[in-house]
Amino acid sequence: MQYWAIQTLNSLALGGLLFLLAAGFSLIFGLMRIANLTHGALFMLGAYIGVSVMRQWPNLWFAALAAGAAVAIFGGLLERFILRQIGGNVLGQVLVTLGVSFIIADACLLTWGGDPIPIPTPPLLQMPVRIGSFIFPAYRLAVVGIAVVVAIALYLLMERTRLGAMIRAGVDDPQMASAVGIPVSRLFSTVFCLGAALAGAGGVIGGPILSAYPGLDADMLPLALIVVILGGAGSLLGAFVGAFITGFVYTFGVALLPDLAYVILFLPMILVIAFRPRGLFGKFAA
Amino acid sequence: MATEALALDGVDALYGESHVLHGVSFSLAEGRVLALLGRNGAGKTTCMNTVIGFLRPRNGAVRVFGEPVQRLAPDVISRKGIGLVPQGRRVFARLTVKENLVVAHQKRGGAWTLERVFELFPRLKERQAQDAGSLSGGEQQMLAIARALMGNPRVLLLDEPSEGLAPLIVAEVGKTIARLKREGQSIVLVEQNIQLAFSLADEVVILNTGRVAFSGPLDQVRTNEALITQHLGVF
User: Cystine design at B44: which of B26, B49, B91, B190 (Cβ 3.0–4.6 Å)?
Assistant: First the structure.
């Protein structure tokens, strides 16, 4: 029983991390129709920046904020000076973001070396938590909690504020939104930065579970893609539900049928593409 | 001489390679209503799209209270005081009625607030929490007008506000426009419904295949059957 309970918690923790990663990916894709393939690399870059920050100031939460801010700035520059220049060229943007993610990966390898670097769990969350007869690692519970808090904050931002309504107006009809005075392109840049910040901070928060290692980007990006295709691009609820489904399918797939883990992972995605191309909660086909 | 609120000055506009406006010039004085008329494809909506900045003119100038805006982006032009009620209404279908209005609010020292707009359109107040996409055509038209007013526009562009509406609703829309006119709102009205346009306009500009075929006060058009038959194809 303990084994299954732990697998369930692992699924939830992975789902939480995937939500932090995929929420930004989904918002950016839903809003700007940019399939930002640097998103996995931004997650990894965040993790490595967190490593460096923590060498100076060994506090995970501070490191997550710092990495989020740094990656947001990087994302903003990427959007402003590269992606916007080729706006409307979807294939061009896909290739450019893929290329930039290779550059980030190589730069990380050059800067931080090829060995995995563990990120320590905050001392307060190192002890296990006992719930009933089960013992859980506290940090994983905290990750789930963070994901839920971020999800609620994003929901309130998008659904309950004027800024969120402006962003949604920009998704609905960007041209008409600009005609009523909404600075659509500036809003989109803000959303891009926000998505990058979530990915960067997510990399640090995932650090105690995943650590920072070359290839983290390539491990995370397909998972983010699966989440967004399952949940539906541009939908926060979709990213949330998709992230936890993917967390469970991946964790239990690896545990039960390790040889078929990727089949089990990609099968739901194929079914969704075949039978419901806009995903569970999405607005348009991915 | 009245203040010039909006002017097109020798505007050439193209969609791709096809030339749709040829040296179009006309101007609207502050507080007046200008009806922009012509057959389908004459270039009326293109004029509106050029003013709001959806389309950049190849040549010529668009001026808002004397200031050239033809190189600016639509959101900047909107903040210069142009409000657009577009053809087909284009309300934000997935936003609530209230959100449609709130996102478009610009103060600009104007009098339009959510409360006043709801006063003008009580039906919108009743449905404020509903998604705009679930409204009827007439209600969506009211919402599109209300949304433009929320920006406190110095010039209001109305692109075929009667299109696709039942006669009773058209009358209601007409009454609303008449009230705005009485309150001193400067308006450009694009219409296929000639009676409606004539009942509201001070000035008339008739476009034919992207050129200004006539420009002058309403009285000169109303009595000129040849002009009406030739360019508007009614009566």
Answer: B190
Distance from CA of A261 to the nearest CA of B (A): 38
Chain B residues lying within 8 Å of A184, measured CB to CB? 75
**Sole residue written with tokens 């190849």:** B58
Asked whether B81 and B105 are in contact (CB, 8 A), the reply is: no
| Measured distance CA(B148)–CA(B142) in Å, rounded | 10
Give the residue carrying structure tokens 């990380």. Answer: A108
Pairwise CA distance, residues A100 & B22, whole Å: 45
Structure tokens at B92: 């934000």
Give me the pLDDT at residue A286, please: 44
Which of B75, B95, B99 has its CB closest to that of A181? B75
Range 105-164 of A in CB contact (< 8 A) with B: 162
Model pLDDT for residues B97-124, shown as the tens digit of each residue: 999 999 999 998 888 999 999 999 999 9
Min Cα–Cα distance to chain A from B149, Å: 10
Contact check, Cβ <8 Å, A181/B93 = no
Residue A258 lies inside a defined structural domain of this protein: no
Chain A residues whose beta carbon lies within 8 Å of the beta carbon of residue B52: 179
The verdict on residue A275 lying in a domain is no
Residue-range domain boundaries for chain B: 1-81+186-235
Q: Which residue of A has its CA nearest to B103?
A: A166
> In A173-183, which ranges are continuous DSSP H helix?
174-179
Average pLDDT over residues A71-75: 97
Q: Between 3.30.450.20, 3.30.9.10, 3.90.1310.10, 3.40.50.300, what CATH number should domain B1-81+186-235 receive?
A: 3.40.50.300
Flag residues of chain B having pLDDT under 50: 235
The model's pTM is 0.88
Confidence of residue A273 (pLDDT cuts 50, 70, 90): confident
Give the range of the structural domain holding residue A210, as residue numbers without chain letter: 2-216
State yes or no: ipTM above 0.90: yes
